[in-house]
């Protein structure tokens, strides 16, 4: 029926969108993508299909390609999606510009105030953050405002005061309580208090045994503390519930290649993660780092470059720079590091990498 409708109205945006959906649902993803590309090239003013195609690209982790599609749309939601995707890629200024553009189009929509406040907190512009937070008056966003206020207090007064505020807040659901635990843990981690962060997660898992989000956060913090046994135990607890959890597989794989001599075992975990999420920048970075450790420098450069092109990340820049330094391309390494250091001057892994290699 869809094909017949499209034959009768070959330029119909609605019919094209329906055909795209039908192909996706029946598993003909490549066919759906090729159809969308061809139809949009012939009929660029097809906002429905372009929206659906962009959303599919996001679901596949192809965020750069999705941004290009959203840039060709003029509605407010497309601006919001661009802001979100730029934020995920760690381009805060681009993200802020898109969120501000969305805010100008929909000044009554307060969800973007949360995004703008978060970006201001990230760059430690507490005056701007406070201004955005004060404008959040929608009761449905009250809990998010509370979390932002705690982060604001952590930055302007003290982390312990912020934690006390969070811990005394009554929660209406497990989801809210888990979010509070994660914010407290994140405040401690960002302050270098990894033991405190680990203790918070341990207590949280006492409240909510088997919670995947808390287990994953615990695996990351355990890795920071070099608690390899804890990383393995925590990841195995996740995999017992979700065998295809790519983030957990990557967390264990990266820890093994970075902190132990179990390179092949760690690489196997990362390969499994990459099969599940082939476009994830963090997993691409892990696989690139694994190839570097194994001496496969060209493969490492290809994978690390792919990771860095998807996310502007100081650790990924540190990794790629180290590969270039190792093969004698020191100028390329310095260019990468200088650029990363301008954006992330306090990143410990980046600083350690530069000092370790340039002091030799």
Describe the secondary-structure layout.
Elements: H1 2-8, H2 13-25, H3 29-42, H4 47-59, H5 63-71, H6 76-88, H7 92-105, H8 111-122, H9 126-134, H10 142-156, H11 159-167, H12 174-190, H13 194-207, H14 212-224, H15 228-241, H16 246-259, H17 263-276, H18 281-293, H19 297-310, H20 314-326, H21 330-343, H22 348-358
Helix pairs in contact: 1-2, 2-3, 2-4, 4-5, 5-6, 6-7, 7-8, 8-9, 8-10, 9-10, 10-11, 10-12, 11-12, 12-13, 12-14, 13-14, 14-15, 14-16, 15-16, 16-17, 16-18, 17-18, 18-19, 18-20, 19-20, 20-21, 20-22
Can you tell me about this structure?
This protein is mostly helical and 360 residues long. Among the domains are: 110-156, no CATH class; 170-237. The chain has 22 helices and no strands. The chain has helices spanning 2-8, 13-25, 29-42, 47-59, 63-71, 76-88, 92-105, 111-122, 126-134, 142-156, 159-167, 174-190, 194-207, 212-224, 228-241, 246-259, 263-276, 281-293, 297-310, 314-326, 330-343, 348-358. Helix 16 packs parallel to helix 18. The longest helix is centred in the middle third of the chain and has 17 residues, at 174-190. The mean pLDDT is 97.
